[in-house]
């Protein structure tokens, strides 16, 4: 079906339009600052409907990018902007939007300045969407770098970062990655005038140039994933963030790195790239184990969440690097549920923090005992997160791990071990929260989540369960 | 009937005509406000631009001045920027209740000289204009009513260095005349093409270029700019930072491409050295500055360095990329200076970084514009600055200058660090001050500038429409 409405451009532009409306929204004590949240939530919902429509239009079993749109951008040098989509990127966009929707609901009653939060969140969402739709190296780079500013502002204003220096370094470090990417983009552009990402993957290059270009591309993507030696600044910032919306945004950044590998990894690996990939796989597995072990020891739930997110991203990265034919679909379906679960868990954790603060207890043990609705949801999301058959994470992780084990047995076993450690960590924290023996009956009874929020959360539970039954359940006739 | 020769000088004549009118109004009209002189300056500037457009290719004195598409492009940009700056400056004079006559009169003189500089085809004219511009700048710096040492010393230093570089400029012209026998561009170009180049000739050309770079405030001749920007009144500081850059660029590009081209091999390393020095010094110094005007002056040095780094390729591609970068930089810088008009508390314009702590909470729109312009100056997409850095990087890769590209990108990170400090102060720190209401005119100017900065990136053709073809008429 032809793309008569330029649907892809519309999907990119909508969050930016929402951002302008959010900027103009009237917010005062009378409206309890809800106007601006409503604008944000409405924008995401409208975009989700459009994304749903695109799922219907495209051929979900066809390879390659579909619904391509081309715009002439610059005459000298001649640059064209191309947008296009496939099932994998569309799944990522849908998951990111759903994650943002859940996180926005979670911060709706936040006392912080909502206007700038929504403005920067929508700006980030627009850039993130653009990245997944970009089908040429220039637009890919533009969105790859454009998301840094809103993210920096979100963390700086709402991330509750104790050390501003780590935030500086986080931004500069990511900017450095983007700058290296920029150099690679310019060099690729000067080798061949064709700018489509698909052509870049099969670009013939001199050997010396290959070292530089693939090295630059790999380093820039790795700068987004918390892998040693790139992990410190990301972990310093990401594990300290308490606001669910900011946490979700920060932890979407590594997804851009993984996605970069998906789009740029050559179809036929040159010798140079094989050399880099071997090093990368070794470092990835060590980082994975290391982070999983720290999470087991560390008592801070935010760090455990950060470790969970990081280990999963590294697993996806390893899956991408194994370059098995169908693995991309498994990663896409698994990542879809993964992002929703992370976002939902963050919102639930926020409620637990608030209850812990209200009760004045130093540890959260037993806090879920008298809050059945919160307890049910939290337990569900933790169980889904560890990979039980409650979402598409179960089947697709299984297939992903099977691929990794057949690709490299030792590496696969290390990944499985890391996942087991992580599952133990998350289940342990759930056990402590539900431990009735630690519940202090003399304290004021904790307030459960509202029935409205519970109903909305059940919708998320439904989406996850349906994704377990059939990953593309929302596409009729798939 | 033959068209009178003087018509080619009509734009400059109209600018100068504003001076006696301002003088008459100043001394003979009883009711006069800051707006009176602004209106006069505006009217004569519009008339000058219109006449410039009508007679854009009329050349009455071809050995002295040349008018063509290239010169009118630069004059038009300078004229439009001046118009916006005059409007903003009016707000300052109204707020301070100061006499604006001297500022507008000196600005019109300065604009006349800059217009002539762009069209100049003879180094006698360039030398005379250069010396007069130094004098004009000095008089502008004296408009600050403060007489304390902090204000007085930079002014005196500027005078001393200007006298020195005026002498260098004159010396360069005299030496060149002794070797070539004429200071006409055409004659010098023909002489150099013969290849009769000696040390004295090279020294003369270096003296001329160094003096022009002093006026353009490129390192290592930049010190006066950052020195005076911190102490000059805001209208003067902004005028000196924004307006002359295009005229010096136009004049230098004309000289390099049409006169000194046979010396390309000798001049390229020299210009590269100055440009790299500007980039590195600007980026490093911006990180140690707490006065926001001086901070952006250092950042300006970094950006000007990048402009001239683009230019050193001395080919059509380098000229276009330098022009694009300069345009993008000046647009963002003018936005930054517009924001400075909004940083006001208890009637005073704020200049120190701690003074604007947490201003975003009180003035969200001004702060948002500030953020946009800063990010544009870093060259980060999706803002217009990206177009500049893309043009620059592509030009450097085409030239195979990978080391220069690495220097530029490391400096970019340093400048970004300086801006992050400003962003942190504006957005993440607590607000301790009560800021004054911002004039609606400033919001309008910011809005227009923001539209240009944002829309131009969506379709750069809007901004660069025909600029490429016009620029290449220089050859």
Concise summary:
The complex is a heterodimer of chains A (478) and B (475). Chain A is mainly α and 478 residues long.
Descriptive account of the structure:
Chain A has a domain at 269-478. In chain A, helix 3 (87-106) packs antiparallel against helix 11 (244-250), helix 17 (392-407) packs antiparallel against helix 18 (409-434) and helix 17 packs across helix 19. In chain A, strands 1-2 form a two-stranded antiparallel sheet. Chain A has 19 helices and two strands. Chain A has helices spanning 7-24, 34-57, 87-106, 114-133, 137-146, 148-158, 164-191, 197-200, 207-222, 231-238, 244-250, 253-264, 271-297, 301-322, 327-359, 372-385, 392-407, 409-434, 451-469; strands at 66-74, 79-85. By secondary structure, chain A is mainly alpha-helical. Chain B is mainly alpha-helical and 475 residues long. Chain B has a domain at 276-475. Helix content of chain B is 75%, strand content 1%. Chain B has 21 helices and two strands. Chain B has helices spanning 10-28, 34-54, 69-96, 101-119, 123-141, 149-180, 185-193, 199-216, 223-229, 234-242, 244-258, 264-286, 292-311, 316-342, 359-362, 364-378, 385-399, 402-428, 440-458, 461-464, 467-471, and strands spanning 344-345, 348-349. In chain B, strands 1-2 form a two-stranded antiparallel sheet. In chain B, helix 2 (34-54) runs antiparallel to helix 3 and helix 16 (364-378) packs parallel to helix 19. Chain B is globular, with a radius of gyration of 22 Å. Chain B starts with 9 loop residues before the first helix and ends with a helix. The mean pLDDT of chain B is 88. Classes of the chains: A mainly alpha (478), B mainly alpha (475). The interface between A and B is medium-sized, with 35 and 34 residues.
Defining key terms:
A: 478 residues, mainly alpha, 3% strand, globular, B: 475 residues, two-stranded antiparallel sheet, 1% strand
Can you lay out the helices and strands and say which pair or pack?
The complex is a heterodimer of chains A (478) and B (475).
Chain A: H1 7-24, H2 34-57, E1 66-74, E2 79-85, H3 87-106, H4 114-133, H5 137-146, H6 148-158, H7 164-191, H8 197-200, H9 207-222, H10 231-238, H11 244-250, H12 253-264, H13 271-297, H14 301-322, H15 327-359, H16 372-385, H17 392-407, H18 409-434, H19 451-469
Antiparallel strand pairs in A: 1-2
Chain B: H1 10-28, H2 34-54, H3 69-96, H4 101-119, H5 123-141, H6 149-180, H7 185-193, H8 199-216, H9 223-229, H10 234-242, H11 244-258, H12 264-286, H13 292-311, H14 316-342, E1 344-345, E2 348-349, H15 359-362, H16 364-378, H17 385-399, H18 402-428, H19 440-458, H20 461-464, H21 467-471
Antiparallel strand pairs in B: 1-2
Helix pairs in contact in B: 1-2, 1-4, 2-3, 2-4, 3-4, 3-10, 3-11, 4-5, 4-11, 5-6, 5-8, 6-8, 8-11, 9-13, 10-14, 11-14, 12-13, 12-18, 13-14, 13-18, 14-16, 14-17, 14-19, 16-18, 16-19
């Amino acid at each position: 079906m032809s793309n008569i409405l330029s649907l892809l451009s519309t999907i990119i532009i909508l969050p930016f339009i929402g951002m302008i409306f959010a900027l103009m929204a009237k917010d005062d004590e009378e409206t309890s600052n809800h106007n601006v949240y409503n604008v944000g939530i409405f924008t995401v919902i409208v975009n989700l409907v459009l994304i749903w429509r695109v799922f219907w239009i495209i051929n979900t079993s066809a390879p390659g990018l579909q619904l391509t749109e081309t715009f002439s951008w610059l005459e000298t040098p001649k640059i064209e902007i191309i947008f296009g989509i496939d099932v994998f990127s569309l799944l990522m966009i849908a998951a990111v939007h759903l994650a943002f929707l859940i996180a926005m609901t979670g911060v709706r009653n936040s006392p912080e300045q909502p206007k700038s939060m929504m403005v920067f969140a929508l700006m980030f969402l627009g850039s993130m969407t653009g990245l997944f739709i970009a089908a040429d190296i220039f637009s890919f780079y533009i969105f790859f770098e454009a998301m840094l500013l809103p993210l920096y502002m979100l963390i700086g204003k709402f991330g509750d970062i104790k050390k501003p220096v780590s935030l500086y370094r986080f931004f500069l470090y990511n900017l450095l990655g983007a700058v290296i990417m920029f150099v690679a983009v310019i060099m690729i552009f000067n080798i061949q005038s064709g700018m489509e990402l698909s052509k870049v993957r099969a670009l013939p290059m001199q050997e010396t140039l290959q070292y530089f270009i693939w090295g630059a591309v790999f380093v820039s993507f790795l700068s987004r994933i918390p892998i040693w030696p790139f992990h410190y600044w990301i972990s310093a910032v990401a594990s300290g963030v308490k606001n669910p919306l900011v946490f979700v945004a920060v932890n979407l950044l590594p997804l851009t790195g993984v996605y970069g590998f998906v789009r740029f990894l050559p179809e036929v690996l040159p010798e140079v790239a094989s050399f880099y990939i071997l090093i990368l796989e070794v470092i990835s597995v060590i980082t994975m184990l290391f982070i999983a072990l720290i999470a087991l020891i560390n008592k801070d739930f935010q760090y455990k969440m950060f470790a969970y997110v990081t280990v999963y991203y590294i697993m996806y990265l390893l899956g991408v690097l194994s370059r098995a034919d169908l693995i991309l679909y498994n990663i896409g379906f698994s990542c879809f549920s993964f992002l929703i679960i992370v976002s939902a868990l963050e919102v639930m954790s926020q409620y637990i923090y608030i209850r812990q603060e209200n009760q004045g207890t130093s540890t959260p043990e037993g806090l879920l005992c008298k809050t059945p609705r919160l307890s049910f949801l939290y337990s569900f999301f933790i169980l889904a997160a560890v990979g039980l058959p409650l979402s598409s994470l179960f089947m697709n992780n299984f297939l992903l791990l099977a691929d990794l084990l057949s690709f490299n047995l030792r590496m696969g076993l290390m990944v499985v071990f890391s996942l087991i450690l992580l599952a133990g960590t998350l289940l342990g924290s759930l056990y402590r929260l539900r431990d009735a023996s630690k519940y202090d009956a003399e304290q004021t009874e904790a307030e459960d989540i509202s029935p409205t929020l519970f109903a909305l959360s059940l919708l998320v539970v439904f989406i996850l369960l349906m994704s377990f039954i059939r990953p593309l359940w929302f596409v009729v006739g798939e | 009937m033959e068209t009178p020769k003087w018509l080619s000088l009509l734009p400059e004549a109209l600018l100068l005509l504003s001076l006696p009118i301002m003088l008459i109004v100043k001394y003979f009209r009883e009711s006069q406000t800051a707006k009176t002189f602004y209106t006069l300056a505006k009217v004569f500037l519009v008339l000058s631009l219109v006449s410039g457009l009508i007679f854009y290719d009329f050349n009455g004195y071809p050995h002295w001045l040349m008018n063509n598409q290239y010169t009118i492009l630069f004059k038009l940009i300078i004229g439009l920027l001046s118009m916006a700056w005059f409007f903003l400056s009016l707000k300052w004079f109204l707020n301070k209740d100061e006499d604006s006559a001297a500022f507008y009169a000196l600005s019109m003189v300065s604009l006349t000289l800059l217009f002539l500089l762009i069209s100049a085809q003879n180094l006698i004219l360039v030398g005379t204009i250069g010396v007069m511009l130094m004098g004009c700048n000095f008089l502008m710096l004296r408009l600050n009513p403060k007489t304390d040492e902090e204000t007085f010393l930079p002014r005196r230093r500027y005078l001393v260095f200007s006298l020195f570089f005026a002498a260098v400029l004159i010396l360069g012209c005299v030496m060149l005349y002794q070797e070539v026998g004429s200071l006409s561009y055409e004659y010098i170009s023909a002489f150099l093409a013969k290849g009769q180049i000696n040390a004295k000739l090279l020294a003369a050309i270096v003296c001329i270029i160094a003096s022009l770079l002093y006026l353009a405030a490129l390192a290592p001749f930049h010190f006066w700019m950052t020195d005076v920007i911190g102490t000059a009144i805001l209208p003067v500081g902004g005028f000196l930072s924004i307006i002359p850059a295009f005229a010096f660029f136009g004049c230098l590009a004309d000289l390099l491409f049409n006169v000194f081209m046979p010396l390309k091999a000798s001049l390229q390393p020299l210009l590269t050295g100055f440009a790299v020095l500007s980039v590195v010094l600007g980026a490093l110094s911006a990180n140690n500055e707490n006065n926001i005007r001086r901070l952006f002056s250092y950042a300006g040095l970094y950006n000007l360095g990048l402009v001239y780094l683009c230019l050193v390729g001395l080919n059509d591609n380098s000229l276009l990329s330098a022009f694009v970068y300069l345009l993008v930089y000046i647009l963002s810088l003018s936005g930054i200076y517009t924001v400075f008009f909004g940083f006001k508390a208890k009637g005073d314009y704020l200049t120190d970084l701690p003074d604007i702590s947490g201003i975003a909470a009180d003035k969200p729109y001004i702060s948002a514009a500030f953020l946009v312009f800063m990010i544009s100056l870093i060259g980060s997409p999706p803002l217009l600055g990206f177009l500049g850095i893309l043009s620059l990087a592509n030009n450097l890769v085409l030239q195979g200058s990978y080391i220069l590209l690495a220097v530029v990108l490391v400096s970019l990170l340093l400048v970004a660090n300086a801006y992050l400090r400003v962003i942190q102060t504006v957005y993440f720190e607590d607000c301790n001050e009560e800021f004054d209401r911002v004039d609606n005119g400033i919001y309008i100017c910011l809005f227009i500038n923001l539209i240009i900065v944002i829309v131009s990136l969506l379709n750069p053709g809007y901004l660069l429409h025909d600029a490429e073809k016009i620029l290449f008429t220089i050859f």
